[in-house]
What we know:
Blueprint: E1 8-13, H1 17-20, H2 26-42, E2 47-52, H3 54-57, H4 62-67, E3 72-76, H5 81-84, H6 89-92, E4 96-102, H7 104-117, E5 121-130, H8 134-147, E6 150-152, H9 154-162, H10 170-177
Parallel strand pairs: 1-2, 1-4, 2-3, 4-5, 5-6
Helix pairs in contact: 7-8
Amino acid sequence: MLIEHHRATLLVVDIQERLIGAMSDPQGMRDRAHWLLAACADLALPVVISEQYPKGLGPTLPALLAAAPAAEVVEKSHFSCVAAGCLPASLMARDQVIVCGMEAHVCVLQTVLGLLGCGKQVFVVEDACDSRTPANKAAGLARMRQAGAQLVTREMVLFELMGSASHPQFRHISKTYMVGEQP
């Protein structure tokens, strides 16, 4: 199954100020998430951003919010966005959800399992997920795959969303996101 623009939403899970420093690769996580958010915004893909207890963990990184200014931000206290009931109807109306964020073995995992339980096709962007340790990230990704989520990369997401080189944004996306060294 391919990711299709008219069926998909990007869900960014808990990339927050006071949590990112504890990740195994905080700068890489920032850069890769920013790349994905900016590219999806350029393709006008709907974006939802969750925040786990923002009073304690701080808000989403400002650069990420700036990269996707039309994103809807939702708050939660459950680890799973699904269990929290915070996902907007616009996301739930689409049958494909592209997920990235942190931590891969906690909030991302529980959200993905909840989305799969709701019958969604879930695509986890493994190069835009992180945990405090590489082992926890690997375990979370393995469990999501075993449960039926598709593991993808950022480039896979973009090329599937565009579908072909005749896409009106192909040239812009190629020149902006596919040249030089990528994060």
